[in-house]
């Protein structure tokens, strides 16, 4: 019998660690390993978008009573293991139902502005304490689960020759080959829909896994100094496009772009869903 199949009675303290949490977190709903309380089966899920973060408790299609009453609370643990953002509920759930708690803290706070407070080595820790109302025992069980997400980070220079003379319809491609075995190869494309517009997008080369991308770019002058930075805080799917309305926004003063070569320093995060999901 595995830990996920073990039927527990009484109160459960459930710690769930999600590894490789970042601003390009994928997918938007990440489920924990399942656990059993008496004759009911549950899991929790982290739900996020670029604005909000929420936790859900799911009752799965188990063999227990059609409706049970559960008392539970959620919290996040800080990087120094202090409980934060506590939320408590008591409610009835039928088989297949879930309840969502939306936290006041925003996604951008957890994964960017306050990431050192919430994340320890890119890991987010969540606690759920659960108790089935009517249970005849007060025994406390402790379980630890872990989910490892796929994450690859890359930093590279992208040099684009004859930048000022590139014509509408032209494309400049930069192939990105993965280091991790799970990560598909992709191609970063710079194209010119019009004489003024510059468009950046990704082309997935595998067709098997569709990852998400988060891209930041810094344009450098001939001294290596950053004179223009573009930070995309949201995730970009393969069909997403980043459009610069003015080509000149990517160009420094003419004499600072040596030999008409645009140099971009790129920071890229590539993410997919769980690579591993289980109990410790």
From TrEMBL:
Q: Which InterPro entries match?
A: TRAF-like (IPR008974)
Source species, please?
A: Trichonephila clavata (Joro spider)
Q: What is this protein called?
A: MATH domain-containing protein
């Amino acid at each position: 019998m595995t830990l996920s199949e073990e039927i527990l009675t009484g109160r459960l303290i459930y710690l769930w660690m999600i590894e490789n949490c970042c601003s390009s977190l994928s997918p938007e709903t990440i489920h924990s390993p399942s656990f059993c309380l008496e004759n009911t089966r549950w899991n929790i899920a982290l739900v996020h978008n670029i604005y909000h973060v929420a936790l859900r408790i799911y009752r799965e299609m188990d063999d227990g009573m059609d409706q049970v009453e559960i008392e539970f609370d959620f919290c996040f643990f800080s990087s120094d293991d202090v409980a934060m953002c506590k939320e408590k509920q008591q409610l009835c759930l039928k088989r297949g139902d879930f309840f969502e708690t939306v936290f006041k803290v925003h996604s951008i706070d957890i994964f960017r502005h306050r990431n050192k407070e919430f994340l320890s080595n890119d890991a987010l820790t969540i606690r759920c304490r659960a108790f089935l109302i009517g249970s005849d025992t007060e025994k406390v069980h402790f379980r630890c689960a872990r989910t490892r997400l796929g994450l690859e980070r890359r930093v590279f220079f992208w040099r684009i020759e004859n930048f000022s003379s590139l014509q509408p319809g032209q494309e400049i491609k930069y192939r990105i080959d993965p280091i991790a075995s799970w990560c598909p190869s992709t191609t970063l494309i710079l194209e010119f829909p019009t004489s003024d517009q510059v468009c950046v997008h990704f082309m997935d080369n595998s067709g098997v896994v569709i990852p998400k991308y988060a891209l930041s770019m810094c344009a450098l002058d001939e001294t290596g100094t950053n004179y223009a930075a573009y930070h995309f805080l949201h995730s970009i799917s393969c069909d997403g496009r980043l459009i610069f309305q003015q080509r000149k926004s990517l160009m420094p003063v003419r004499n600072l772009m040596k030999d008409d070569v645009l140099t971009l320093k790129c920071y890229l995060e590539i993410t997919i869903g769980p690579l591993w999901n289980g109990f410790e």
